[in-house]
Structures are given as structure tokens and as C-alpha cells.
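Hi there, hope your week has been kind to you so far. Would you mind checking whether the C-alpha cells look sensible for this chain? I owe you a coffee for this, so here goes:
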Amino acid sequence: MNPGPPTLLLLATDFPPTAGGIQTLTWEVYGRLTDILRLAVAPAGAAPGEHAWPLQRTRHRGGKGLGAVAYLHEAAARLAQQRAAPCLLHCNHLLAAHAGLWLRRRHGLRYVVWVHGEEVTKSRFPKLAAASLRGAAAVIANSRFTAARARDLMNGRGPEVHVVPLGAPPAWLAAAPLAPADGGGAPVILTVARLCRRDQYKGVDTALRAVAELQARGVAARYRIAGEGDDRPRLEALAQALGVAERVEFLGRVPDEGLMAAYDSADIFLLCSREELTTRGLGFEGFGIALVEAGARGRPVVAGRSGGIVDAVVDGETGLLVDPQSPAAVADALARLLREPELRRRLGAQARARVQSEYRWDITAARVRALHQELLRP
């Protein structure tokens, strides 16, 4: 009997309706691969439009600790029933690859695993994480920096690591960017980031100090921060202490349907992410999907020269890269863009053109499809 066409199994630890970058990646990429997707397993929940997927929801909702263990145990049992060759299991997170490793050892099911950033450098169980990467047929990373950290964890022993860039929302590229509303006020600088204590590498504190530096220089600007988290009180107190609270607006979590308008209301996008060593490991920006979103809306960026950001931003072409530890350097770049509207326009236009040519979800999905077919080629 001839084997059937090569098919794909998906094990997702992060999946809609919960929100996040990994959820978006999974929905956008594997939603374009449903013609070869035999089964996707995801935690309990419901997402709009999932009827087009061969999707099974587990009883368990996943999460951390014992919840994650229970979910992976149930998900692995379901996937084991679908392991007929030729097929390949895709794990959308390193945590999912722990189940992938068990399925390979127990049932011979080959798998690939996505790595996104800090889960590689801050794993609570680094030996298990390294084994899960080494056991994969391939590793997919969102940037060269993340790929290097995965190779470090594997200590040079493991499969090839493939860098596959991420994408921008299709609707954001279809709609023409809008010019910021000219209400007679100061230009707007925008940051979109989680405001969590564990994610202080995002550098919002440095951004606030840069805004204070602009104020000291007499440069007019307003700073908006879209995002929520347990670090917000500290950042609000810092804005007060720096004397810039009247220039800073904390927007809280902006829903997806309002996010594009938030970008369109800004003149400059700012992300001061740095590489920060903590007791849990190295914190860093794995790629910086917000930078691609800003580019899709034709916004120039000022960003920290760190982590995977150097893949997402071309210095002097789509934005300005700066020392993310230096508020003065950040302020210098912001001041330059604020006083040179033509430079803002040029960098924003080039950023949008780069996103249109390189950072689209259909391109990401095509690269994943090609890798999947290559790995299953006899």
C-alpha cells in the first residue's frame, strides 16, 4: 500500500482565544496550512472561525505547572492516535516539545519546534529543554539572535535551526497608513509592550527617562504607552518622579480592533528593549513583532540595538537603532526624527515597503510549508 500524502500534526500550548504573539503566529501560519493539517490539538476554549481547522480541544486549559503537565499528557495521547506516516508534528512552543520528545521516544513520531525567545534562556528545566530541542527534526526560530540562543542551549549538538521571520496583520498592509491627526498638539511617540515586572527588559523605564531628556532640551513630544501589567505602578511613579507625567499617557491594554488606530495616531514608534541578565536567565526581545506592525503602518521606529531587533529594523533605512541602556542616545534619535519630518516620512515608507516584501504571514507560512515538505522527503 502506498503511503498517503505527507501531513502535519500541530500541538499548540498557546492558541486563541487567549491573546499573544505565539497565538497570532499559530493562527496566521497554520491557518494557511489546513490543506495538509491532519489534526491540531489546543487547550480548552473557543476561537472564531476554528471550524475550518481539524481541531480538537482538550478538557484541560493548559497554563503553567500541573496544568501544563495535564494538558500535554492529554494532548500527547490524542496525537499518538494520529501518528500514521508520513507525518510530522509541529510544536508551537518549547513547552509543547516536551510532549514531542515523549512521542518520538515512545512512538517514533518526528517533530519540529518553534522557539520565540526567553523560554530558551529562562527555562526552569534547562536539561529537559535542551533534550527537547536536540530530539527535534528541526528547530524554527524567529530571529538570528533567538536561533543562536537555541544553539547555545543545545551546546552544538542538535538539529539545524531555521530562521523564519514573522509577519504583519494582512489588513494592516491592505489599508493605506493614515497621517497622525494634527490637533495642534505635540508629536506623538508610541510604545506597545507588556508592562510586567518579569519583562522589564522592554525598557519602558529608559523610554521615560528619554522623554524627560527631551523635556529638558525643550523638545515638544507626547508619549503614549499601550500595554498592561504588574509593572505599571512602578512606571507611573517613575513618570511622576521625572516630572513628565503630564506628557505621558498610559493607555492600558488596547484591544486588537483598536491597535491599528493607535499606531496611526503616532509619529514615531519606540521600543527600548535591552538584553538584561536576571536571576532567571537572559531577558531579551526575540524579534519584536510590534516593530513590524509599526512598519506596516508606515511609522519610523527608534529601537534598542539588542536581541532579535536587529533583524526587524535596518538602521538608517527603516528606523534608528540606539544603545537601549542610554536615555541620552534614545533622546538624540527621537529629537532627530522630531525635527526632520522628511526623514520620518522616508524611514516610515521604507519600513512599510520592507514589511510588504519580507514580513507577511503568507511568506512565513510558505517557508514553514517548504521546511515541512523537505523534512518528509524520502
Notes: The mean pLDDT is 93. DSSP finds 15 helices and 15 strands in the chain.
